[in-house]
Amino acid sequence: MTARTPVAVLGNGPVGQTTALLLARRGVPSLLLDSRPHRDLSGSRSICQQRDVLDVWDFAGPGRRIAAEGVTWTTARTFYRDQELFSYTLPDHGSSPFPPFVNISQARTEQLLDEQIAAEPLIGARWGHHVDRIEQDEHGVTIGCASGLEVRADYAVACTGARSADLRAALGVDFAGRSYDDRFLICDIRAELPGWAHERRFYFDPAWNPGRQVLIHPCPGATFRIDWQVPADYDLTTDSLDERIRAIIGDRPYEIVWKSVYRFQSRVASRLRVGRVLLAGDCAHLYSPFGARGLNSGVADAENAAWKLTYVLSGQSGPGLLESYHTERHAAALENLEITTATMDFLVPHDEGQRRHRLSVLERASADPAARAEVNSGRLSEPFWYPDSPLTTVDPARPFAGRPARGSVPPPGPGVLVPDVPADGRRLRELAREGFLVLSSDDLPEPHLRFTPALREALGARDGEIWLLRPDAYVAAVLTDPAELPAARARALGW
Fold this sequence. Notes:
Elements: E1 2-10, H1 14-25, E2 30-34, E3 48-50, H2 51-60, H3 63-69, E4 71-72, E5 75-80, E6 83-89, E7 101-103, H4 106-118, E8 123-127, E9 131-137, E10 140-145, E11 150-158, H5 165-170, E12 175-179, E13 183-190, E14 199-204, E15 213-219, E16 223-230, H6 241-249, E17 255-262, E18 265-269, E19 273-274, E20 277-279, E21 285-286, H7 295-313, H8 320-347, H9 352-367, E22 422-423, E23 426-427, H10 428-432, E24 437-440, E25 449-450, H11 453-459, E26 466-469, E27 475-479, H12 485-492
Parallel strand pairs: 1-2, 1-11, 2-8, 5-14, 11-20, 24-25
Antiparallel strand pairs: 3-7, 4-7, 5-6, 9-10, 10-11, 12-18, 13-16, 13-17, 14-15, 15-16, 18-21, 19-20, 22-23, 24-26, 26-27
């Protein structure tokens, strides 16, 4: 059996689904391959979907349905033992139709993505095909499956998840990092908990899980996801889950919907592009879940890969465009690794110095509001910014000041995702994702969108400036001379 496709997407999870949908949105056919016999719809798994990811899914198709079905939460509460240290209300940037986060089970998200795929003639999906061979030459990629199916593609995107050791080995990719000894017990329970339906709760060292943490998230259908940190030798079969749950919810009726035990890892692949193969999602990086940087960063991988493959396949790009996928998304992966590792070092200290530091911070934060900024329960997912990308034209008048404070976004400028604001009767990001977009107040010899006063204010645009936006709504360049526009566009296309 032989199949031919421009892009083979290996792995039919949410990152692979998103990749295929974004390619189809731009007119590129793809074939999804998955080793499983069918979709696994059990458990909540990755539940926190960030606003900018909902925006990507809106371009792909089902973003508004996912947002409408999810539980919106805007408040994050943090406790130490029986005392609330602080609560944090997520800020609202721009005029996005989406909330900062929604909680919805990964299973339901996959169902909604599947419905969009089923209506898309440019996407084929085949289950029960385990990839056991991948070879490349100057013209394409050959993918062999244990089922006997062979797929010939121009390019492949590997979204095969955490258990991708054989595939990474075949590509010569290392996956350095660490595994954490402590485990995490996860339960989805259905219960009525008044006042808890729109907030995330994080407990340090509660009496009902001494010395460790508990995280509680609301989900649709009066369901709550509870994560307990448990010892390395924890045994689910002998634990009294009822006692654990009742310590949190009291004498209320409840139902266990799903339960599991995880050991988290922090790893990043040494290469995210190997020839004609791109690695995305958990195949490329693994993080602890505190901060919701797993699936959210995987969707960002998918968008980055999809628009670049579109331009490569159409012959409009230069030789550097595909390599910029590794440059940009590997840098994003390393930042996510740094942030989540710092969180895990605070949550799960691995030496006496870290344990003393954690205890000191929590004790001081109980009485001193100034110490609360040192409490690390996870910096919530946010976009990565590309000021150092080879695709970005540097503007000395708009230097990038580095990672902003938690909950903040950098001011618009080269390498930064534009705010989601109205433009030409639509949304600026919608317009940008249709192709490279030029913004200007002046007449130009090429198609462009004129600045409105509201758009100028949202971007902080100055008189005479020309803004060039990439197809993922990031700013490629801010220019003052129209003659520089062709060079900036060429740079953003990898020439």
